Amino acid sequence: MTNLSAKETEDSGDYANLTCLYGYDADVGVWRKVTVDANGKIKIDPEITDAIWDETLEDHTTAGSAGKKLADIPTTAMRGTDNALLAANYAERGTDNAYLATDGASLPSKADIGDLPWDEATSNHVNSGSFGKKISDINTQTTNLYHYNDDIRHSTYPLKANGVTVSPNATTWSWGAWTEVIPTNQISRIFYITSVISSCGCTQERSIQLGKGTAGNEYGFSEVDIIERGYEQSATRINPAVRVTQNTRISVRVAANNATDIICKLSYFYIK
Fold first, then answer.
1. pTM for the complete prediction?
2. In order of start, what are the domains of the chain with their CATH numbers?
3. Pairing state of beta strands 204-212 and 250-256?
4. Cα(235)–Cα(266) distance, integer angstroms
5. By three-state DSSP, how is residue 110 classified?
6. Fewer CB under 10 Å: which end of the chain, C or N?
7. Average pLDDT for 183-199
């Protein structure tokens, strides 16, 4: 519809006082009535609205126009413009639906896919903070502890030397002073204390506490009870063995039912 012009009225331009407005449709040579609502808003004839939606998109080629944007949607946004590439992709996919269905049936099962992460080599994962790196870094000594007994070495400290004299407190069942048994930097790898070897050469019931820390700053971390009858050397096991970081200083202190001194050594093992 073209050449739509306003018909002269008594109050031209003041749409608020109009009840209707007429426009001339030159395409068909008729005057069309345009209604006005109570607020002076012009109501478009439904035929005009229909004409907008029925407009052929190919007629609109001006860059930046709404018609051009709508006309471009099917070729650029949905399928692309490289028809040769589309044809190649179609050919690669194939048209034999029966073959495609068969090929799809041979895809890995859920169980196979689930196996893949556990079969992955841990050496391939080096990113700090990742689960692969965490698993890769697990201390292999833990495995060696249970599976490679030929790599385990047992020893005693002090070895080929007199034991350390430790004095109980003069007050029955009160802890005596800390006494160093393994000095700092004497065992240069992680070790595990397995037992306390002690003797007082008398009948005595005692508790022995192991401690870490520098001289004057010791703190206890494991205890054992020992009952000695006569002149017996007692080796009391610590189960499970206590893991100690390499080069750690170890002290002991004693609480007993009498104040007789004891001779003490510590038995331990380490992974070669």
1. 0.48
2. 108-138 (no CATH), 153-271 (2.60.120)
3. antiparallel
4. 9
5. helix
6. C
7. 95
